[in-house]
Specification:
mainly alpha, 27 helices
Length: about 550
């Protein structure tokens, strides 16, 4: 009956936070694309083949798009849905949509398990790791809470009151515990898992020092990291440059940008290179970096001011910049300098992605245009900040519960490992290693005892040992790590519980934690790592049974 009450109470605590336990840290951004591009993507979705990929890229170039990860990964998604039609030629076509992401795209579209496994580090950033840690820590704390609550439920039932008051005492303790837990859920509405973490110190007082202090340290570190926020914010200092230089944009949009930032010479230079209507700006100042240098030099070249062009190119040593090479070839074509064009076009062979863009646009459409340049493609940037108010709340509550924890530790409440009965310092002064006085005298230091008492106690010990054997086996089978924690092997139990929490997270939520705007493509390469994680978990899971058997527990 006590076991049923314990399970029922544990279940009640768990369902209290069944909804909205995990908060999403991701954000979305929208880019303005032409109807033609959207139409071409729809055609590619209906009929995935090399011709339609090339048609989409052709339309992409008409809007002078040079590097766009959003479109690139949209095509990658379609490619993965049609893997049987994927060829090396199509892979090369897809990489042209975003030269800056070409290495990642090649990994994603490869069929090599090891390639994806060992190159996953290229897809991970600090925002990913922090978000992942927070999510796993939350699930880990929920599991630990369940395990220790089940193991130490006798905190609520053990009392020295008269029999008719024992039930009232247990219900009072449970009511206080639930009230505190509910209060924490109200105090931390956006991070409900912190309530599980903060309540754990109240359930650890009977554990051995090593395991107890390890758990407390993990909780403390986890709460600190839980105070950190992982947000995605617009890179406002670069967004208008990127929209102007790299995104498909109309002349009207470029002119509006120009009016919005009338003093921004770099933006005006980019707009000038993309539309003939954006020429009403003052003389360009001296460039301060290579980005300005490429665009200012290109403007001078488009105006035929070769002297200023050569001066900037030489000053900033950008003669081998692919955009400069593209614009020089455009200049040769516009001025009918075909001999120079034929000699100089070879310099662009070292940049195949840019060469393909140049050739497809300049020759296929029989047009010449000057390309703008902006090397940064991050429209959004990670923002990791600390919530000082939550940090103060966490530490204040944790400090209070830590004081209560050490107070409960002073009560020296424990369950005898031989007979399974619950004792505390008041009812059993002399105990050693979670063993009551009588069992200690019988098993640890045998002395002459009443044969009747000795026989009765041995029967109780054998019955409890059989019950514990079965209980630990069932617990270990359905909740990995719980059996180890129940038997006092806290460190090993924590390791297995952490692995189980990670595996359980992927089973329930998949790769949702990774699919946020700063992690283009990571969801496509994480599967090999998860497979390896499952293998490691399974090996340690099996070893836990071997370990328990060696300790005569299961």
């Amino acid at each position: 009956m006590k076991l049923f009450k314990t399970a029922l109470f544990t279940f009640y605590i768990c369902i209290m936070c069944a909804n909205n336990v995990f908060a999403s840290d991701s954000d979305n951004t929208n880019a303005l694309y032409s109807k033609t591009i959207k139409t071409e993507i729809s055609k590619l979705s209906d009929n995935f083949n090399s011709t339609n990929v090339e048609n989409l890229f052709t339309d992409f170039l008409r809007y002078k798009g040079i590097d766009d990860p959003v479109i690139a990964y949209a095509v990658v998604e379609l490619a993965l849905e049609n893997k049987e039609l994927l060829t090396s030629e199509i892979v090369e076509q897809i990489k042209k949509f975003s030269p800056s992401q070409s290495g990642k795209i090649e990994v994603i579209l490869s069929n090599s398990f090891s390639n994806k496994l060992f190159k996953i580090k290229n897809f991970i950033n600090i925002g990913t790791l922090l978000t992942f840690f927070k999510q796993i820590f939350g699930l880990f704390c929920i599991l630990l809470f369940i395990y220790f609550l089940f193991k130490n439920f006798y905190f609520f039932t053990h009392t020295h009151l008269y029999a008719h008051h024992q039930k009232f005492s247990a219900l009072t303790k449970i009511a206080v515990f639930v009230s505190i837990f509910t209060t924490l859920l109200i105090i931390f509405p956006h991070n409900k898992t912190s309530a599980f973490a903060l309540m754990l110190p109240l359930l650890l007082s009977s554990e051995a020092k090593t395991g107890r202090y390890t758990c407390l340290l993990i909780i403390f570190i986890g709460l600190i990291f839980s105070s950190l926020g992982v947000n995605v914010t617009d890179n406002t200092s670069k967004k208008h440059y990127i929209n102007a230089a790299l995104k498909p944009a109309s002349q009207e949009y470029l002119l509006n940008l120009q009016k919005k930032y009338p003093e921004d010479k770099l933006l005006q230079a980019i707009a000038y290179l993309k539309t003939d209507e954006a020429k009403n700006f003052l003389a360009l100042p001296e460039p301060e970096n290579s980005v300005e240098a490429v665009n200012f030099a290109s403007v001078y070249l488009s105006q035929g001011k070769t002297e200023q062009f050569n001066r900037i190119v030489n000053k900033f040593n950008i003669s081998d910049n692919p955009v400069i090479l593209m614009n020089m070839n455009t200049f040769f074509m516009k001025n009918f300098m075909y001999d120079e064009y034929e000699q100089y076009i070879e310099n662009l062979y070292n940049y195949p992605s840019y060469y393909n863009i140049f050739q497809n646009y300049q020759l296929k459409f029989n047009k010449t245009t000057y390309f703008p340049y902006y090397k940064y493609t991050e429209l959004i940037i990670p923002k990791i900040d600390i919530n000082w108010l939550n940090t103060f709340k966490y530490m204040a509550v944790f400090a209070v519960f830590l004081i209560i924890h050490f107070f409960l530790t002073g009560l020296k409440m424990f369950r005898c490992k031989y007979c399974g009965k619950v004792y505390c310092a008041k009812c059993n002064d002399n105990f050693y290693d979670n063993t009551c006085s009588l069992c200690y005298n019988i098993h640890e230091e045998p002395v002459d005892s009443d044969p009747h008492i000795l026989t009765k106690r041995n029967i109780e010990s054998e019955n409890y040992k059989t019950f514990k054997l079965r209980l630990v086996f069932v617990l270990s089978l359905i909740l990995p790590g719980s059996g180890l924690i129940y038997t006092g092997n806290i460190i090993f139990g924590i390791i297995l519980t952490a692995l189980f929490a990670t595996v359980l997270y992927f089973i329930i939520f998949g790769f949702s934690v990774f699919t946020w705007p700063l992690n283009f493509g990571i969801q496509y390469v994480f599967e090999p790592a998860v497979i390896v994680l499952f293998i490691i978990f399974f090996i340690i899971y099996i070893l836990s049974f071997v370990y328990l058997r060696s300790k005569d527990v299961s």
